[in-house]
Each structure stands twice: as structure tokens, then as C-alpha cells.
Predict the 3D structure of the following.
Amino acid sequence: MIGFAAALVVGGIAMLGGVDTGKVCVVDMGSNTFKLIVGEMSGGTYVEHYIDKKTLQVGDDMSKSGRISDGKLKDIREALTEFRSKCESKGAVSFRAVATAAFREAVNGRGVVDIGTDVQIPVEIATEERESALAYLTATNGAKSQAVIDNGSRTIELVAKDANGAPVWKVVKLGYRAAYDEFFRNASTFAEGYDRMIAALARDLGDLTAYAGRQDLVGIELDEMATYLLKKKKVDGARITLSALNKSIAKLKREDASTFSELKKERDIDRVLPRLVAVEYVLRQTGYRSVGVVSRELGVGLIIEAGLQ
């Protein structure tokens, strides 16, 4: 098997066997952001041709009443229509979309399936198990003996595979937006928010031994945190060490209320602080010394899956 590290070195995902897919248009309908991906499997390698993003904040909208508002459904229709047009202009030969946590939770979440039918982008509302399986493919290319963390806006997912190759997953509603609002937004210091989030992680994640002892731990949806920690823009293939996290968190804990207030004004800090805490916690509980960063969206898993069939 071609290893994960080797795939990163050559700038693509290398796999044995598989089929060429042609250009595939995938819309990753996240709870906060929609991501458009045009990519393909070619010669056993994942090749990305185009990516675009649109912030729709469906999760925030849904959390107000438990349903997606009519206005937000209109925004979703417009976004998918625009994405379909872009995909056609990029030469896509097939179209798919995967919707995640906010759509599972919304009482009218399946309305986006009808919208997808209208705009000719079939929409799949992923179960927790299905989303975890796609996260595993996105992060590992299907390689065995890996553990994956996916820290999205509404949920944190951990996934590995058992001895039979079946996914073993855990999903908790402590994604970065939810966690920032609950633990950091109104906290007077980082230390205060940190202690509260650690208590919640310990309560909700519980025993993590099922994800320990693998060849590697890799993560998706960690880019902003990695950029903040490593002080560089391109973080795909980088590693975040537990020692670096410990050092950064210790520094943040020493900040007084005034300094922390200023920190909360920084761009993307809501995406950074909860992820620092979550990744540090997972590393400590599973015994890994570092996590690899994979700068790919969940929808890439659909393309890799098609190439493996």
C-alpha cells in the first residue's frame, strides 16, 4: 500500500487500483459553509481542479427554531444553482452533494433533497456513520490503521476502522462554532473557557481507546488552527505536535481579561480556540504525539469512494 506520507509528498492521493472517474462535481453542504469541489480520480491519484466556498450559516439559522427558514432554503437553492453552473463550466461529468449535521437535525432538512432534484445535483443527507466514513476516506485515502478527527462547525467526529474494516465512530456536538459560543464568547479569560470545554469533552467523548494505537492520527477541518499555531498559510501535510499545542495553550492561559478580550477580535479566532482545546484533548487521551493536517473538504471522500469502486 502506498502510505499517507508518500501521497502528501507527491501532492495527491495515490492509491492502488481503482478507476478513473472523470471530473466530478461535489457540493459539501456543511452546517456553516458550502464547499464546491471539482476533482477526479485519475491513474489512482486524486486530482483537484477547482474549489469554491460560500458561507450560508445554515446551522445558526436552524438552531433558532429547529427548522431551516424559508429564506435560508432560498439561499440554498441559489447557491446550488450557481454551483451547478460553475461545475458545468469546469467540464464536470457527474454531480453529487452531501449534507451534514444541520440538515440531519432540522425537522425540514429533507427539503434540500427536493432542491437538489430541481437543480440536478442529487443531495445525500449523511447519517453520522456515513459522514464518519467519508471523513475517513477524505483524510486517509482508505488506508488501514488510521484514526481521524474531523472538527467541523457543529460537531467533532472521531473515526477509525475495526479489524473487519467497518467504521468505528463517535460524534459529539462540540464543533468550533457551538464550542466558541458556549465556552469562549462570554468567558473573561481563555483559562475559564478552556476548563469548561475540557469538562464537556471529558463528559461527551468518554473513552477514546478505540482510536488509540493506530499508525497515525490525521485531521480535516483543522486549517485555521494549524495556520494560527504554525504561522504559515499552507498547512496541508503539516503536523501539529502535542508539545506545540501545550505551549500555545499555556501561553493563552496566562493572558489576563483585557488581553483575551482583544484576542477575541482577531479574524477566525472562533475557529481556532475550540480546535486547539479539542485536538490537545484528543492527543492526550489517545497517546499520539501529533496529528497530520489534511486540507481537504469532506466531499472529497465521495470522489475517492467513486475511484475505489
Summary: Residues 143-293 form a domain with the Nucleotidyltransferase; domain 5 fold (CATH 3.30.420.150). Confidence is low (pLDDT under 50) at residues 1-16.
